[in-house]
């Protein structure tokens, strides 16, 4: 640590995104406890320039070198902020010596290498970047064992499970009397929509989540329920739980985020308003509790809580994620790569919403032999899936 009056330096990866904004909101409420050491993003120069003026990190990094150059110009009048770029810059932010805590808030597999680097350096790592766990969860968990890094989930469901578990992180879940983990799903904007109309879904409709305000990629994943599929994989990897002991329950109000069932018949649920500042504050301060600026849950006002089984027919991505989880790391890496390609094309206007699943299905059908469990091999495998999905797009895209 430096001689700063503030005890905990935090590096926020993906600082200009939705998780970044929620994290920085919580940090700003507690200047006596947290200070920003490093910030990272891709190419949002305006957003990053504003954050730099407000939080004065020692290091700021943009994945896109042109954006980094533009940011350097914009911060010309400020001293003490170094601007770096490229993949190495993201690693630099993730391993910055002034940061004890790293928030992994980059979207997609682009966040994997920085997340793993933070874990290998032994940081306290708050993981929102579920794609990193989907592509290389076993590597991340093994690296934490070796380095002693503390991993804390901030995906709301996984943070909910974490809060309902009895013991400290690191203890084998099988030894704690836990029988099942249950993730809730809102069902997204198309939970009740006539399946015959799904071909006409617009980007705006898919991004309009009924309960959560999030980035565009995760919003589309929530609409297809691939998000819940990715979270199922994330839960198995993070908590070391077999797939058959993790359930998904549709709960449209998003007030219960997760439940843990114990062998004595107890079920513990974690509840709260759908606001990411709660899981972020929980993980930042754990084992303490800090104010997150979140409205308190009012059950009388909420009135009712509904539950239903997920509909795998309406949401084929859920079945694809389950199949990939059964097939192993190579398949989950490929699932992620194909999904990122298909969702990006949908957001770009080139693919119908109801064909996202078809692109992923094509890719998984062509899966080559499983890769080795190394970072290089898993990334190469994910890249193969991206090329395969791009091929499949030629069949499905409509322009
Ligand atoms: N939002 C939520 O409520 C929520 C909840 C649970 C989990 N998560 C997970 O958290 C992650 C972030 O989600 P989000 O909703 O915050 O996404 P978002 O709003 O789209 O923000 C993404 C962030 O990642 C940065 N980024 C994108 N590509 C990058 C690259 N190649 N290298 C470095 N940085 C890059 C973006 O920078 P630019 O702005 O410069 O493009 C931005 O700062 C995802 O994995 C998501 O599944 C999100």
UniProtKB/TrEMBL annotation:
<feature type="binding site">
    <location>
        <position position="186"/>
    </location>
    <ligand>
        <name>1-deoxy-D-xylulose 5-phosphate</name>
    </ligand>
</feature>
<feature type="binding site">
    <location>
        <position position="130"/>
    </location>
    <ligand>
        <name>1-deoxy-D-xylulose 5-phosphate</name>
    </ligand>
</feature>
<dbReference type="GO" id="GO:0051484">
    <property type="term" value="P:isopentenyl diphosphate biosynthetic process, methylerythritol 4-phosphate pathway involved in terpenoid biosynthetic process"/>
</dbReference>
<dbReference type="GO" id="GO:0030145">
    <property type="term" value="F:manganese ion binding"/>
</dbReference>
<feature type="binding site">
    <location>
        <position position="18"/>
    </location>
    <ligand>
        <name>NADPH</name>
    </ligand>
</feature>
<feature type="binding site">
    <location>
        <position position="156"/>
    </location>
    <ligand>
        <name>1-deoxy-D-xylulose 5-phosphate</name>
    </ligand>
</feature>
<feature type="binding site">
    <location>
        <position position="231"/>
    </location>
    <ligand>
        <name>1-deoxy-D-xylulose 5-phosphate</name>
    </ligand>
</feature>
<feature type="binding site">
    <location>
        <position position="16"/>
    </location>
    <ligand>
        <name>NADPH</name>
    </ligand>
</feature>
<keyword id="KW-0464">Manganese</keyword>
<feature type="binding site">
    <location>
        <position position="228"/>
    </location>
    <ligand>
        <name>1-deoxy-D-xylulose 5-phosphate</name>
    </ligand>
</feature>
<feature type="binding site">
    <location>
        <position position="155"/>
    </location>
    <ligand>
        <name>Mn(2+)</name>
    </ligand>
</feature>
<keyword id="KW-0521">NADP</keyword>
<dbReference type="InterPro" id="IPR036169">
    <property type="entry name" value="DXPR_C_sf"/>
</dbReference>
<keyword id="KW-0560">Oxidoreductase</keyword>
<dbReference type="InterPro" id="IPR013512">
    <property type="entry name" value="DXP_reductoisomerase_N"/>
</dbReference>
<keyword id="KW-0413">Isomerase</keyword>
<dbReference type="GO" id="GO:0070402">
    <property type="term" value="F:NADPH binding"/>
</dbReference>
<keyword id="KW-0460">Magnesium</keyword>
<feature type="binding site">
    <location>
        <position position="215"/>
    </location>
    <ligand>
        <name>NADPH</name>
    </ligand>
</feature>
<keyword id="KW-0414">Isoprene biosynthesis</keyword>
<feature type="domain" description="DXP reductoisomerase C-terminal">
    <location>
        <begin position="271"/>
        <end position="387"/>
    </location>
</feature>
<feature type="domain" description="1-deoxy-D-xylulose 5-phosphate reductoisomerase N-terminal">
    <location>
        <begin position="10"/>
        <end position="137"/>
    </location>
</feature>
<feature type="binding site">
    <location>
        <position position="43"/>
    </location>
    <ligand>
        <name>NADPH</name>
    </ligand>
</feature>
<dbReference type="Pfam" id="PF02670">
    <property type="entry name" value="DXP_reductoisom"/>
</dbReference>
<protein>
    <recommendedName>
        <fullName>1-deoxy-D-xylulose 5-phosphate reductoisomerase</fullName>
        <ecNumber>1.1.1.267</ecNumber>
    </recommendedName>
</protein>
<dbReference type="InterPro" id="IPR026877">
    <property type="entry name" value="DXPR_C"/>
</dbReference>
<feature type="binding site">
    <location>
        <position position="129"/>
    </location>
    <ligand>
        <name>NADPH</name>
    </ligand>
</feature>
<feature type="binding site">
    <location>
        <position position="209"/>
    </location>
    <ligand>
        <name>1-deoxy-D-xylulose 5-phosphate</name>
    </ligand>
</feature>
<dbReference type="Pfam" id="PF13288">
    <property type="entry name" value="DXPR_C"/>
</dbReference>
<feature type="binding site">
    <location>
        <position position="157"/>
    </location>
    <ligand>
        <name>Mn(2+)</name>
    </ligand>
</feature>
<feature type="binding site">
    <location>
        <position position="222"/>
    </location>
    <ligand>
        <name>1-deoxy-D-xylulose 5-phosphate</name>
    </ligand>
</feature>
<dbReference type="InterPro" id="IPR036291">
    <property type="entry name" value="NAD(P)-bd_dom_sf"/>
</dbReference>
<dbReference type="InterPro" id="IPR003821">
    <property type="entry name" value="DXP_reductoisomerase"/>
</dbReference>
<keyword id="KW-0479">Metal-binding</keyword>
<feature type="binding site">
    <location>
        <position position="227"/>
    </location>
    <ligand>
        <name>1-deoxy-D-xylulose 5-phosphate</name>
    </ligand>
</feature>
<comment type="function">
    <text>Catalyzes the NADPH-dependent rearrangement and reduction of 1-deoxy-D-xylulose-5-phosphate (DXP) to 2-C-methyl-D-erythritol 4-phosphate (MEP).</text>
</comment>
<feature type="binding site">
    <location>
        <position position="19"/>
    </location>
    <ligand>
        <name>NADPH</name>
    </ligand>
</feature>
<feature type="binding site">
    <location>
        <position position="157"/>
    </location>
    <ligand>
        <name>1-deoxy-D-xylulose 5-phosphate</name>
    </ligand>
</feature>
<dbReference type="Pfam" id="PF08436">
    <property type="entry name" value="DXP_redisom_C"/>
</dbReference>
<feature type="binding site">
    <location>
        <position position="17"/>
    </location>
    <ligand>
        <name>NADPH</name>
    </ligand>
</feature>
<dbReference type="GO" id="GO:0016853">
    <property type="term" value="F:isomerase activity"/>
</dbReference>
<feature type="domain" description="1-deoxy-D-xylulose 5-phosphate reductoisomerase C-terminal">
    <location>
        <begin position="151"/>
        <end position="239"/>
    </location>
</feature>
